[in-house]
Design a protein that fits this description.
Elements (H helix, E strand, L loop, with lengths): L1 H13 L5 E2 L8 H12 L17 H11 L1 E5 L10 H14 L3 E2 L1 E3 L6 H10 L4 E5 H4 L9 H10 L3 E4 L12 H10 L5 E3 L7 H10 L3 E4 L6 H4 L9 H6 L4 E2 L11 H9 L5 H15 L4
Parallel strand pairs: 1-2, 2-3, 4-5, 5-6, 6-7, 7-8, 8-9
Amino acid sequence: MSGDADDVRRFWERLGLPGIIDVHTHFMPERVLRKVWAYFDSAGPLTGMEWPIEYRHDEDERLALLRSFGVLRFTSMLYPHKAGMAAWLNGWAADFARRVPDCLHTATFFPEEGVADYVREAVEAGARVFKSHLQVGAYDANDPLLEPVWGLLAEAGVPVVMHCGSGPAPGKHTGPEPVGRLLARHPRLPLIVAHMGMPEYAEFLALAETYPQVRLDTTMVFTDFTEDFTPFPPAERGRLAALGDRILLGTDFPNIPYPYVHQLHALERLELGDDWLRAVCHGNASALFDVG
């Protein structure tokens, strides 16, 4: 793994950065993560393809790897697939953030009774970012139970990373239309669209152009793996450049089927310039999360 670290560090050292910030990494209770890995191993219906896990290590080794890469801040993206899980996951994530200070305190939610209460508790406890997974959770972002949650997060200015695109497989409530309805009611919601909205790239770029608080993360996009089944349209690269202050590095570590550095090289080969790379890999997230 030392070769991996050397390759990543060469990337950001060439740009003159102090390191990189990754807004889309997964840490969760071990038994939950093992079930996630088992799902990927089985090529379940939400993936539908072979998906080897590159960094299938225990928690301490995964943390050591990110630090050896020079990742200054990262997240513990976790999410419930049914009611009754989110508050428990938030308790685990709060403890994880306490013992891992370079992790941005992450929380989650599900449309259920009491959701506004435990989201407010998480915000008051210092949550810096939330995760919403419309595909896995199979819920509508416009569920009335979530209405107070969106208002609370917009008022508090706490970003939510949302898997809302219809890739790698569509869900009942994925796609730009329901997210557009949400943003029409909550235009100040600091939303980070995971995976650049794959495969509805153009539509989610349009939402970012309409709503100044909408951002997109790069997770798995532009890589050889994703380009094989959901290529990013070359005609949209100019919009990537224009939105360069609102695109954030995300990787999906550790659940990726290629080395970590490949995501960085995939961004580099877009040929949008070093200033764009510096903003995406460090500056934009540093400003959003007030990282010194």
